[in-house]
Amino acid sequence: MNKLFYYKLIAESLKNELNLTDIHIHFKNIYKGFSSAKGYISIPLWTLKNNSYCIYYIIHELCHQVIYKRLGHFKHDADFKNEETILLNKFNLIPVYSKSYVKELIKNNISVYKRTYSNE
Ligand SMILES: [Zn+2]
């Protein structure tokens, strides 16, 4: 199966699971992804290089929509991190936070992503 198609499927099924049926997700050749108040999510294509990181990125942006609908903000606060952690755990991923973002992802006791300056 085509990698992009695979991640699109994951994104769409997560979106439906979270009852975010009105949200639009696009994978684009951009440096930084985003989640907008109008319900648009963009995921950078370069994240496809690392399976776990790509899933984290999808979850991160979807989480913004969940929190926006529930609490009306786009902050990376404790509520956001709790929601994000719950979703990551469904994929067997444990996040290690540094301020707002995840600096490392652990899966089955193995580090599957470590932040570097080039992909921050
Ligand atoms: Zn964010």
How is this structure best described in words?
This protein is an alpha+beta fold. It has one domain: Zincin-like, CATH 3.30.2010.10. Helix content is 41%, strand content 25%. Strand 5 and strand 6 form a beta hairpin. It is globular. The N and C termini lie far apart (28 Å). Bound molecules: zinc ion. Zinc ion (ZN) binds next to helix 2.
Low-confidence segments, given as residue ranges, are none
Report the biggest beta sheet as strand number plus sense, adding barrel if it closes. 3 strands, mixed
Number of domains: 1
Assign the CATH superfamily: Metalloproteases ("zincins"), catalytic domain
CATH fold-level assignment: Zincin-like
Strand order of the largest sheet: 1-3-2
Helix proportion of residues, in percent? 40-55%
The backbone outline, from C-alpha atoms, is globular
Query: If you compute it from the alpha carbons, what radius of gyration comes out, rounded to the nearest whole angstrom?
Result: 13 Å
Distance between the termini: 28 Å
Number of helices: 3
